[in-house]
Amino acid sequence: MLSLDQVDIIPFPNIHIKLDTGLHRLGISVNDVPILINKLSANSHRIHVKSIYSHFMGIYTSGLDDMARHQADLFVTSAVAIEKALGYSVMKHLCNSGATIRYPDFHLDMVRIGCGLYGIWPVQPKVEFQTCVASLVAPIIRLEWVCENDTVGYVQHRLNRSSLIGVLCIGYVDGLRRHLNNGEGRVWIYGYRVPILSISMDMTMIDLTDVTEQVNINDQVEIFGEHIPLEQMARWCQMVSHELIAGLGQRVMRIFVAEEYAN
Question: Any idea which positions bind substrate (predicted)?
Fold first, then answer.
């Protein structure tokens, strides 16, 4: 469960305790809290507990509310018992982004806003401030008219008309998913949502035929952002929003924009 035998070699033995209240990924089982308290008491002269925390196993729908409340009760009961044994108050935290919205009663001493910092809130319904601040764009690197009945890409998407095909400098190595092939996904340019025809490792082919504005090499195409909501792109990719964000490849350039320049 926990070894404090080597605590003397830690220069500043401040510790943070994670309790397993049901996720069963990391942490000390709440069933072992009495053993933990004994170990902490025996080593109270050389360690200091800074925080106690846990992680919800599910908070995304109302159907999980009873489970979440049970976890919260287990956590608070265990944390209070540890504090009582220690003889001092400890910072307690439990809520991630979704739980911060859905369970204000469980905010305790702090909350852990992760994907919520980017406006990604994996719960419904959304509230006014839940606006995604992240966007992904890619440049057009090639334009070509392709004849009717010809095929496009490895998926051999067959064209039912003469079509203007744009090639984007982004592919599945950068985090896109091949679920978007054959028009299953869309991207945005000049007011139009245009179909994705084929995604390869480094490039993506899109159908620009219906765009009435002049399209040029190096024009930026929105993968997700203001006009293609991140949640919509994630659904097309058959994943959740923060999974899509986390899966963006290392070569995708991250540009952080100050608020005063965001518009």
Answer: 25, 201
